[in-house]
Amino acid sequence: MDLKKIFCATLALASLLPFAGAQSAKTPDLTGVWGTFKGGKGPNAKFAAPPAGQLVLKPEYAKPYEARRAKEAEANQRGEQLANSGAQCVPYGVPTMMSVAVYPVEIIQTPKQVTIVSEAFSEVRRVYLDRPQAPLEDVAPGYYGRSVGHWEADTLVVDTIGIKTSVNGYRGMPHSERMRITERMKLVTPDVLHDQITIDDPVVLEKPMVYTLAYQRVPDYEMVEFVCDNNREFIDENGIVRMKVKER
Amino acid sequence: MKSRPLNVLAMTMLLAISAQAHHSFTMFDATKQITLSGIVTSFEWTNPHSYIEIDVSDEGGAVKHWSIEMGSPSILQQSGWKFSSLKKGDKTTLVINPLKDGRAGGFLNTATLPTGKTLGNGPGRGPQK
Fold it and tell me: Measured between alpha carbons, how far is residue B74 from residues A3, A102, A103, B47, B122 in Å?
């Protein structure tokens, strides 16, 4: 075997490493049900999520975003809520589905795939560990896009593209089709998980938005079915969320 | 009305943490509490919210129907609720925050079941299991 062949074989092997080859006996197991971390005070304070970074939108996006937030705040002051996707029972998508109110997420980890199920709205994400990311132009825009992941030591790094622009991002921020989400999921203790989320969007953001979600294990929890088949909220003619009442 | 300040505080806290919740609670008047005693016409263990439909008779015998919103089953079970906690025909007493727009609807604070047990409306809202 000549040196060139050995070099080529080594190169081919190395190219596989970021995928299935990175799984080892030391790979953490994220499998389980995870609820919002509640121990942010006292001795557990060090496991709380670090403060979120600053959301800095490009000026042409900042103006309408701030105007919308101001309108929402005004409506709240009046005791009203403006229409949003949640009130219409539309799923939240990535990344918002990772933190919906107090609902837990379930992670199912196998060597080739990590599946994440959010109890709220029964949303499902699949993170492929055994294949590369597809080019953006090949991913149909959707709520969950396409996610691939690999292990970097004890951290699962997840890359997501293809979130459609109607799916709101962090705190309702707008985004373009070029939004890319990088998550770094790590067990900071066996029972506390951090998901550091970096949203990068060269069209909309001045700089990447980084925030971290902290979870704690909910042992023995059985996920509750969530099908949105009794939505009584409706949007009135003024764009305000109201509730239907039944007649006798 | 001893529990009112606590209840308002709990609602405010919940608002603060539930930025991505299904909807906010601004349509309900958190400063007002009404007690409704009546007969359950249906108990809907559903998403995104559960509901108690209830007929309430006044002293003159006139019946008014109310629709009372609760948390989702996932949230309610943390207060000890089950899908079978109430059924059609049960007599119950509900403490609610009414809708601000005056229609006969509201948001549950507590419910006293036919067994005499009083349940809240999820963590931070009324008695826990």
Answer: 62, 9, 8, 9, 9
Q: What percent of chain A has pLDDT over 90?
A: 69
The residue in chain A having the minimum alpha-carbon distance to the alpha carbon of residue B64 is A248
| Residues A232, B49: C-beta atoms closer than 8 Å | yes
Q: What pLDDT digit, counting tens, does each position of A191-229 carry?
A: 999 999 999 999 999 999 999 999 999 999 999 999 999
Cβ–Cβ pairs < 8 A, chains A and B: 98
Domains of chain B by range and CATH?
Answer: 4-119 (2.40.50.140)
Q: Which of B121, B112, B125 shows the shortest CA–CA distance to B36?
A: B112
pLDDT digits (tens, 9 = 90+) for A25-65: 789 999 999 999 987 666 678 899 999 999 999 999 999 99
Domains and CATH numbers, chain A: 20-243 (2.40.128.20)
Flag whether residue A230 sits within 8 Å of chain B, measured between CB atoms: yes
A232 shares contact with chain B (CB less than 8 Å): yes
Percentage above 70 pLDDT, chain B:
77
pTM for the whole structure:
0.84
Where does chain A have alpha helices with state H?
Answer: 3-16, 59-77
Chain B nearest C-alpha distance from A6 (Å) = 54
CA atoms within 13 A on the CB side of A110: 7
Chain B residue with minimum CA distance to A228 = B47
Unique residue bearing structure tokens 């919740």? B21
